[in-house]
Amino acid sequence: MGKCGKVARLAVFVAMMAGPALAAECGEDQVHLKGDWGQARFSVEVADDRAERNRGLMNREKLPMSAGMLFVYNAPTSVSFWMRNTLIPLDMIFMDSTGTVQRVHSNAVPLDQTPIFGGNNIQYVLEINGGLAERMGIEVGSVLQHPAIDPARAAWPC
After folding, report:
1. Mean pLDDT, to the nearest integer, of 120-130?
2. What are the residue ranges spanned by the domains of the chain?
3. At 78, phi and psi to the nearest 5?
4. pTM for this structure?
């Protein structure tokens, strides 16, 4: 196993072992995910306006293993993403207004301009390193915790 594989597995192991401690922290700069597979925490940049969402993770040569970008829309909408000017493979995790995962697109191809349809009624999208969602087991039905999600609607409120 290469160095990257070992680092990825270690990051996943540490995130999953932190389980109960994750629920205690809820901040703008991090998201928590949980499902039957366990729990994980990612440091995130939040893209919550049109300019930030349009720029996304473009022109980045690397993304730390435990980092990502959370796209926040004001209301549920139909979303499509592309990889224009994006240099690294990404997983895109599409969630509804409750923070429940509706779709996972794995390993989006760098620089590909083919639209990636995320679905209808999507309000949050988390981008992380390509292949990580599958390695961790993040799947439809997993839930996200973040202060941007209305606590009255959240499947996993802060």
Report:
1. 98
2. 3-145
3. -90, 130
4. 0.86
